[in-house]
Amino acid sequence: MDYLADIKKYSAQANEAVVAKMARTYALALQKQDSRTVSFSDPAELERVRTNYVKKKLGVADSDESIDAAIKKVGASIHGQKNRLTVYYLLAEHYGKLSVFGG
Questions:
Q1: CB neighbours (10 Å) of residue 18?
Q2: Domain containing residue 31
Q3: Scanning 21, 44, 80, 91, which has its CA 20 to 30 A from the CA of 5?
Q4: Between helices 84-94 and 16-25, what is the axis angle to 10°?
Q5: What CATH number did the domain enclosing 89 receive?
Q6: Which helix (DSSP H) or strand (DSSP E) does residue 70 occupy?
Q7: Cβ atoms within 10 Å, residue 44
């Protein structure tokens, strides 16, 4: 899959180096079809995104409600399949945390 092209649908100025670093970081999750996407209908999945990605990886200390609202906003902006890397990139961009991946 061309992750950069998918991300550029939603963020025209997407940083290619950041996308490449994210793809390397999440290579194991991206190998499996099931984990390649984020299921926005699964509360447990959204909790994992909030806890493991937004809070732990990005270091965001906002309230759960605030983070959940950001995750929901990102999910609503993506049409069709919610590719994990696209969701993660848009969340990092939303929080100004692309620097976590070298951006």
A1: 20
A2: 3-101
A3: 44
A4: 120
A5: 1.10.238.120
A6: helix 64-77
A7: 8
Q: Please report where in the chains the tokens 């049409």 appear, as a residue.
A: 79
- What pLDDT, in 10s, does the model give residues 79-91? 999 999 999 999 9
Q: Which pTM was predicted?
A: 0.95
37 three-state secondary structure: strand
Judged against a pLDDT cut of 90, whether residue 1 lies above it is answered with no
CA–CA gap between residue 89 and residue 79 (Å, rounded):
15
**pLDDT tens-digit profile of 9-65?**
999 999 999 999 999 999 999 999 889 999 999 999 999 999 999 999 999 999 999
* Cα within 13 Å of Cα(19), Cβ side: 19
